[in-house]
Amino acid sequence: MPVRLNRYLASAGVGSRRAVDELIRDARVTVNGRVAELGTSVGEGDQVCVDGRPVSAERQAWVLLHKPAGVVTTANDPQGRPTVLDLVGSPLRLFPVGRLDMDTTGALLLTNDGLLAHRLMHPSHEVDKVYVADVEGRPDATALERLRSGVELEDGATAPAQVRELAPGRIELRIHEGRNRQVRRMCEAVGHPVLHLHRSAYAGLTVEGLAPGRWRELEPAELDRLRGA
Is the pTM of the predicted complex or chain greater than 0.70? Predict the structure, then answer.
């Protein structure tokens, strides 16, 4: 799927989104030999040049992190809190694919592949995210069915989820949306606020065998599955 040119250039390390917008406005960027505009999109196989020189992206990397609690999903934090990039410590310019809030643990993908990240986060691809939630009380059949059917939130009804009870007060939810704090808000809406939330899988990637705070690079076969997701 094509991605906006400024996002592509930023992910390739050319500069910040604001800086690359200036390059585009100054007619210093071409795509396949034509001067680009701010609304230009690029896809795989397109040749992007800045000042006549092809953009040489960094070595692409894909990292799976077992995010622990107390760490923020951002590149830089104004409050000085530890970030997921602090844990990975890569010399490459990685960024997280989507978000987990500070208290949520589990599978988080980081990459410098802007095209792949854009595809994974786009709602049309319906990438699976699996969460295990410890909640207050024990959801009854009615509450579980509401989660399965879709819950009305302040920003609209959620899509249906796959839900099953793992133990009293512990449920597993499989969703494909990516709204802010969605699982926490869904559980609160049915009367069972979340006590602890863990994302056990993202796009089929699990943190099995990874201790909290540890990470690994993806295997080629895993990357092939992501590209087909």
Answer: yes
